[in-house]
Amino acid sequence: MKILFDSVMPYADAFFSSIGECKSFESGVLGDIDLAEADVLLTRSTTKVDKQLLLKAEHAKFIGTATAGINHFDVKAIEQHGAHWTSAAGCNARAVAEYVLASLLYLAINDEIELAGKSCAIVGVGEVGRQVASIVNALGMSIVLYDPPRAELESTFTSASFDEVISADFISLHAPLINDGKYPTRHMFNDIVLNKMNANQYLISASRGELIDTNALLARFRLKSKSAASGVSQCTAPQLVMDCWEDEPTISTELMTHCRLATAHIAGHSLEGKARGTSILYDKLCEFLAVDNVLNLRDFLPIYEMPENLMAHIRAFDMDTLSLATLNNIVKCFYDIENDDSFFRQHMAKSDQITPIRKNYPIRREFDAVSVRLQNPVAKQQLSALGFKVL
């Protein structure tokens, strides 16, 4: 059995060499001969699996993506090809939730607002949305859950109305891109919706950039600038945290200038998140082939090298204050969102392409990569709820 996998999938050779003959390929450089010989094709989002590719991969019977999203898969074409397809849904949920937490803390500290008591609408309550809801709840925020398709499938789940969503203080997007049907999500934040929002609200884009109509959003910012210059009442637009952009990998650099935080679609790019994608595909391929899955992700992840200042911040958090500032210091030891924002703006000053940043993104670890020991029961409960491994 010949297994062809994307070279950026961590530990892929170690996982899949126990099953068959492995060969890696560079994203965007997929040879015809390699495709023709592949029984198993494992990709990431940079490889579009469509009719044209499948014509070259005539022997492929198992096609998987080590990502949560499948917008790069022509599912109908794959099924007509007679191949089994799968994804690594949920693999980066923890990393995305930690990105949202870093965003919330940054905004709270810089705008001098208390998060407790503020409302946060979560659009799309799959694995990522559930993880974000857990974090939002741990911060003492009120949660607005919006997912009509899930409400139709699950009698125990009730979706909020969209009016409740667009009246929330914070709105965090975690829905898939759906172009048609009963509940389309493409441009769900269009001119009509954006017109109902204001500058005291925060919109976090961490799922698919096409959920927001970029042109409509830019029109709001342009109108805001024009009204400010004329001295008349300002037309307002929400505060933006943008990780996912419309028309990637080419993005609107004009929109970037209006963002409070801007990053290169890397919210889910933790080492654990990427490696978990590999591990999930390994488990699913083993199931498909009816062989034992004897390997586990924890066998490969390196020991976390704890920053020197992390324990000092942990000790401060173990005191009575439990301030957002101290929590932010802890989070920044794992993920400094301001660094990503700064690097992104420097790069995009010379280009409108985000691919190089994503391809060369440095290793980032998730919160539970290290165990922390606390005495304060309130601190233990809060850090545990935020995803830390607490002893």
Can you tell me about this structure?
- It catalyses: 4-phospho-D-erythronate + NAD(+) = (R)-3-hydroxy-2-oxo-4-phosphooxybutanoate + NADH + H(+).
- With 391 residues, the protein is α/β, with parallel strands linked by helices.
- The protein folds into 3 domains: 2-87 and 271-299, 3-Layer(aba) Sandwich (Rossmann fold), CATH 3.40.50; 93-262, Rossmann fold (3-Layer(aba) Sandwich); 310-390, Ribosomal Protein S8, Chain: A, domain 1 (2-Layer Sandwich), CATH 3.30.1370.
- It contains 17 helices and 13 strands.
- The strands form 3 sheets. Strands 7-6-8-9-10-11 form a 6-stranded parallel sheet. A 5-stranded parallel sheet has the order 2-1-3-4-5, with helices on both faces. A two-stranded parallel ribbon has the order 12-13.
- Helix 6 (127-138) links the parallel strand 6 and strand 7 (142-146).
- The mean pLDDT is 93.
The total of beta strands comes to: 13
| CATH homologous superfamily descriptor of the largest domain | NAD(P)-binding Rossmann-like Domain
Note the overall shape.
globular
Class based on secondary structure composition and strand pairing: alpha/beta
Brief digest:
This protein is α/β, with parallel strands linked by helices and 391 residues long. It has helices spanning 12-16, 32-37, 51-56, 75-81, 93-110, 127-138, 148-153, 162-165, 191-194, 214-230, 253-256, 271-289, 310-317, 324-334, 337-348, 355-359, 377-385; strands spanning 2-6, 21-25, 40-43, 62-65, 84-87, 119-123, 142-146, 170-173, 202-205, 239-242, 261-262, 371-372, 389-390.
